[in-house]
Amino acid sequence: METLLIIDFGSQYNQLIARRVRESKVYCEIVPPTITADQIRAKGNVKGIILSGGPASVYLKNAPQLDAGYLELGLPIFGICYGMQALSHLLGGKVCRAEEKEFGRADLFVKSSGGSLFKGVPRKSISWMSHGDYVSIMPKGFQTTAFTKNTKVAAFENDAKKIYGVQFHPEVAHSEHGKKVIENFIKVCGFKKSWTMENFIKEKTREIKEKVGTDHVILGLSGGVDSSVAAALMAKALGKQLTCIFVNNGLLRKNEVEYVRQAFAGKFNFNLDIVDAEKHFLTALKGVTDPEKKRKVIGHEFIYAFDREAKKIKNAKWLGQGTLYPDVIESKSAFGGPTAVIKSHHNVGGLPEKMKLKLIEPLRELFKDEVRELGKSLGLPKELVWRHPFPGPGLAVRVLGEVTKERCDILREADHRFLEELHKSGLYTKIWQAFAVLLPVRSVGVMGDERTYDNVVALRAVTSVDGMTADWFDMPKEVLGKVSNRIINEVKGVNRVCYDVSSKPPATIEWE
To answer: pLDDT below 70 — which residues of the chain?
Structure first.
């Protein structure tokens, strides 16, 4: 597969660079600067390199440096911000501390000579700057192609050697023509732009078959987008060599078991093992109110249930997981060193080593939106592909206080009506995540001239891009009124509904 490598110098925008490249139908990988020229050669079909930005100053001790061996590969190289400075430093130019730092929007002026990166870009446009250093003296053989008021060398190039650099960040949306700049570099590299879901499915199914052989794969299916798409892809590749274990822990959404069964019915030829473990989980959770203890109990019970079912499957050598590319990136430090904490799988929570299964993660190269696109291409229902995120511990972290079947049932019914009204109003797809929470308090109410003392439900709906930050969704009053009315009238045991208007930070999306 034709590949563009992004060398990670610690930029907060690395994933944006990868996204812009993928949007141009080119496959890319983010790798640490510790990768050697020989390792790049061994990858086979690398056709270009982008050097990311980063927080360091290239002239300081212990700052990450550019491997001179990259220049001997004969590949086009494009340095962004720190990447540009690293190129200049290596090639004999000079990088200095700026007297005036340049952050935010800046007018970018492209010289008449423009160069390869600025073909089709206006002579004046807005760029996004974020730097405290600058290239004061360019390396020999380079020419300036763009500048700003404060930065004389906002872009340079040596077109003969196909080496380019920009001081601004073309990957962010604030740079008006940044996407065009990246596309121009991709054109210099000579990519065929063959990164499509159809090609990905073809290549990945071949790879899965080759890796697994005649062995059997087990996958923990949760009903969420990631595990469902992973299951669909591996089912296409392996058929009955795949067994998906769906553990009904009693903490799922309303009709979840039947929903998952119907989503895959008649379309995918694999084994679906549904385990009814509701009593085990609820018994283990009896009297538990601390959120972290809830998680530990649920994780322990899941491992027990999953392991017990897995032992029944003959020739099982592989464990499938729906790990995504952001998970892979976030589990590594910026400079390729060991991480202090590695993300645990959001459904499994860490499986025991005694299972001795090899790991297979067919989605580990994909971003969330690409996973959704893949799901559609594989024939999964649109409703499943666009489902909101659901926490691994399920309703246990939305039932505040003790978790019981009665309290889960109340929450299930309230949550179902909330989501149902969001679908009816067309708001569901405009919201990152929406759900109901059952509070550990009761309130006084009046129903039919009688005093009630019942449960309180809180509604939560947020907008977000990646879940790292979020803002509360400005829900129309008529929708809130309808949801509240339905819950109070139709869900026995609830007499009050509230709406959560806190953002993340300082709050988290989930309440526990």
So the answer is: 326-355, 449, 466
